[in-house]
Hints:
This protein is an alpha/beta fold. The chain has helices spanning 18-22, 25-33, 41-52, 67-84, 100-114, 130-138, 148-157, 162-165, 184-200, 216-223, 258-271, 335-338; strands spanning 2-3, 56-60, 91-96, 121-124, 142-146, 171-174, 206-210, 231-235, 286-288, 291-293.
Amino acid sequence: MTSSPRSGSESPATAPSRAYELYHPHIQRWIYERGWDRLRDVQERAAESIISGARDVILASATASGKTEAALLPICTALADLRDAGVDAGLGALYVSPLKALINDQYDRIVELCEPLDLPVHRWHGDAPASGKARVLRSPAGLLLITPESLEALFVRHGNRVRRIFGGLRYVVVDELHSFIGTERGAQLQSLLHRVELSAGRRVPRIALSATLGDLTAAAGYLRPGGAADVAVIASAEPGGEIRLQVRGYLEPASGNPTYASRRTLAQRTRGPAAMSRPTAPPSPTIFSGCFATPTTWSSPTPAPPSKCTPTCSTSGRRGPAYGPSSSPTTAACPRRSANTSRSGSRTRPRR
Length: 352
């Protein structure tokens, strides 16, 4: 493991930017349009190591210090240079993130960055559109944002296609590296990265990002098992950007609050006191068309149905049983309704 030295003794605002000169012209214009007056320290020091692709790199700096751009600006530069040289790289970069929400949050930023370079950006997780996944399987290109679980599913469900998908892979980015170290999920990710390199048929440079790394040596050993000495660690002490947080809380006690008391009084006046409490007994059976129908949604035992139906049918003038030998309270037909139906089942007009 080696650490990158700080760039010169000049201040970042006055020192000439070597990294800016290494970027693709479209990347330079993208930076100019954003109104950046300089590159952050981690961005300045990471560009050369990532573009060369000779070593794995760990970028450790504060939150909101530009780590994502520090990794993606040189990666997009390398992919655009390959495309300009006529090399069909296919899927160029695999961006592994621990959370679907983090992928969705960064997706628009990365699309905005890659759009001037005509590099497609795809996301693959449980909530991602199926059309985007089909596009990756059909014609892999650009950058793929994915979670470890979705990467595992890709190997399981499309094992016959992974060699074509990762055949031209140039970079693997692991975001929030600290969340994987020393966990079962992290061990799974190590296995997946090894399978990715087996599918590509060569060693693929790994770029790791983190803001809270205590042991950089252990982090390098995790990123490249057995090859920690060849991992370049770029740790920046530059503070991150300003983060503004607003927390709002609303408290409304149940007692001693005039607003709550007035709402309860209004409810009692409009709906009665019974509306404020839960009923303790099941409702009584309801009469429909001369037959008893007991609600079946109540959890208590259903009362036994009456043996006969007393109302007189207006069409025949006779009294008849409401339930046959094999009938039940919920499925029995009403005599009044059956008298108006012929043997074929069609409804006829009553006699006059």
